[in-house]
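Input/output pair, single chain:
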Amino acid sequence: MIFSEEIKKTTALLNLDSKFIGSGVIFLNKDKLYFITAGHNVYGKEFDKTWKKEQFSIVINGSIPIPIKEICGDVEFAKKNDIVILELKKTPSHDLKQFISIKFATIPKNPVHNLILRGKYSNVKDIVNKSKIYYDQLNDQNNNQFLVNIPKDQLINSSFSSGSEWLGGMSGSGLFYDNYSKIICAGILIEIKDKGDNGKLLIAGISCLKELVDDIDIIDSHDLDLDTKFSSRMLLKIIEDVDVEVIREWEEKVENNPQLYFINKKLEQIYPPSELLKNKIRVIKTLISGINFLELELKNNEQLYNNYYSAYSVYDVSEDKTSYVNSKKEAKEFLDKMTDKYEKYLEVQLSDKIDVSIIKLLTSYGISNWISNCSLDFLKDE
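Output:
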């Protein structure tokens, strides 16, 4: 996580009669200090407890407890959404500079977003991070709540006990995007489903809080799909996911036989036998990575996808990709010159819109695609 130091300022603990009962997100909004946590942390699991603000306090980094000024909303709102927002008292004992303003987002429905959960549970001293969390689906009973997937080993302790018992206190933990220079909260934890056996967490979304604090800054999660910094980080994940097994499965598919034939044929014209396998793997990996990036990532931005596709199509139609050569050396020189020329072309067309690492992938994808469909051809110079 690239903002590890800043995110520490967002996590606070909820105490009832000086005893820790849950986690939450603390933040500044304008000149007010707020704390978000699970509704049942305040009103009890059956939402039948009487709210007495004097019994509750907020603690951050083991500091002097922060008193609560008021709860926004009522028990009915908390029961419906299982989320509450508390306004805290500003006191001389607490320097507001230790707190920060953060952004919030609507439900992160794009499953390629990597999310991180930050909070504390009863059996550990320190606040912990749970990572590699991804969106699963909306809650059938409440569209302001959603399920996420988490590796089950993160819900198992050293005694191999799973479930919510030993994770008591995690309710209210903030769910954050793990891909940005900005801190963006996507929701708070309200339940570990089926005692953690299925690796699913139930999260309360933030949007409903607009009913209580209308000037809270909530971003449409679709806008985050267009962030180029996010795209470049997702690019790395997409490339890493194309491993040896994925490449082997691609080679074994009958529908890929024509492409595989041309890949082998063209590479034999460029590289010596000792270099063929390495470069075949590279071309296939680039093909799969490029297609996955276009379909899973770039298509989230329709305008940017169309800009790329138009640039690719124009170059494909207008550029002569055939070379007359007498040796592998001449074929390699032509390939290198064409790669360089195409990359510079894409930079002119797209560099103001996307990261340079993405342009390099799109360049390699275009070249690999032309190799695999015989658009790029080497003829003997007679």
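The chain is about 35% helix and 25% strand. The mean pLDDT is 87.
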